[in-house]
Amino acid sequence: MIKILHIIDDLGSGGRERQLVELLKALDGDGRFLSNVLVMSKKMHYKQMVPSDTSVFVLERKRKKDLGFFIRLYRFIQKQGPDVVHTWSSMAAVYAAPLTRLLKVIFINGMVRSAHENMSITDERRVRGLLTIPLSDLVVSNTRAGLKAYRVPPKKGICIPNGFDPNRLGSLERKNSIRSKLGIWTNHVVGMVASFSDNKDYDAFINAAIHVLENRRDVTFLAIGEGKNRKKIMKKVKGKHADRILFTGRIRDVESVVNTFDIGVLLTNFHNHGEGISNSIMEYMANGKPVIATDYGGNREIVSHGQNGYLVKNNALGSTAFYIQKIIENQELAKQMGKNGRRTIETKFTMKKMLGNYKALYMGIRHKENYPKF
After folding, report:
1. What distances in angstroms separate CA 361 from CA 25, 128, 186, one per listed residue?
2. Whole-angstrom distance, CA of residue 112 vs CA of residue 153
3. What pLDDT score does 367 carry?
């Protein structure tokens, strides 16, 4: 039996946390593995979804730079005696990397979740990579672009793309009900599901929305999410467009809302962020929706330009607005792109495939076999 200790900042409502929980469920039903989880804060959105046989421990950092945490974590790992330590965030990697060397425990570094191509040498993400990647037995990323961005040596780098669970689409609320709740009265809906953070380009999304609405009144634009920039972005929408550019806040049943879309959009602030395999894009495609996304990072590994959506360079206003109108005005194109997107998820980005790849990874690294290449 392989004993795995997963370390993560928190069990909040993000994509990596959801994927960890799904992995824990799969490992729980496989007698070859025993998993425990160490969480570095008390944020526990997904705790109830963790299998009952998987222990969840909390070891809080007392401050942002908590040197004493190294000692507490060393003692914890020593007591647990895992065969493998798998970290899921950059700070978890910073703390665990030197300790696994001291304790002679196999270390899988899962910090590479984005693919920003132009990180400076002083960029915090790059610094954490420089500190931890040399001490890692393997580095797991959800994109090839991420491995390249962090300059991971080929012998250490493994790409395991995110997976989508089709069961999430099993009980969608009716479209008419969602439209009524949100106050949508137009024929068409274009949405973006993302945090209002510096990493996402809601400015470009709203500018494209206003541009389209200057030419037609039959489209509603949904901005779904929360974050520090939300109020600032909302101020851009005034007067005649306010009833067709809606800010929903965070929505729990986001799949049902995505199901009302005609087009799913994800625009990234490419100056400081590159997407990995975006959970929002997977949700759009699984629901059979064409995608418009920034031509950068991991988006290129899931969006095929002209096949299941369009990639826009530099989030150009004209290109984004043009492709929105092109898809809306050509329903056969929209339908075919939607089918192609769903096929992309069903063949390349399934949860079953992701879980199988992780199991193969653990078996290979534990038994010193040739590491699998996915």
Report:
1. 17, 23, 48
2. 13
3. 64
pLDDT in tens, 139-167: 999 999 999 999 999 999 999 999 999 98
219 φ/ψ angles, rounded to the nearest 5 degrees: -130, 135
Single-letter code of the amino acid located at 255: E
CA 296 centroid distance within chain? 15
Residues contacting residue 338 through CB under 8 Å, at least 6 positions apart: 288, 289, 290, 308
Characterize 191-203 residue by residue with b for buried, 16 or more Cβ atoms within 10 angstroms of its Cβ, and e for exposed: bbbbbbeebbbbb
Backbone φ and ψ for 84, nearest 5 degrees, come out as -135, 135
For residue 313, give its domain range: 166-348
Give the count of domains, the chain.
2
pTM of the predicted model as reported, rounded to 2 decimal places = 0.90
Nearest to 362 by CA among 137, 169, 43, 178: 137
Q: pLDDT tens-digit profile of 257-300?
A: 999 999 999 999 988 888 999 999 999 999 999 999 999 999 99
Distances (CA, A) of 65 to 9, 68, 91, 356: 14, 9, 10, 36
Domain with 111 in it: what CATH number? 3.40.50.2000
Residues 255 and 111 in one domain: no
Verify that 259 and 148 share a domain, yes or no. Answer: no
Q: How do residues 197-226 score in pLDDT, each as one tens digit?
A: 999 999 999 999 999 999 999 999 999 999
Judge contact between 264 and 289, C-beta under 8 A.
yes
CA dist., res. 93 & res. 128, Å (int): 8
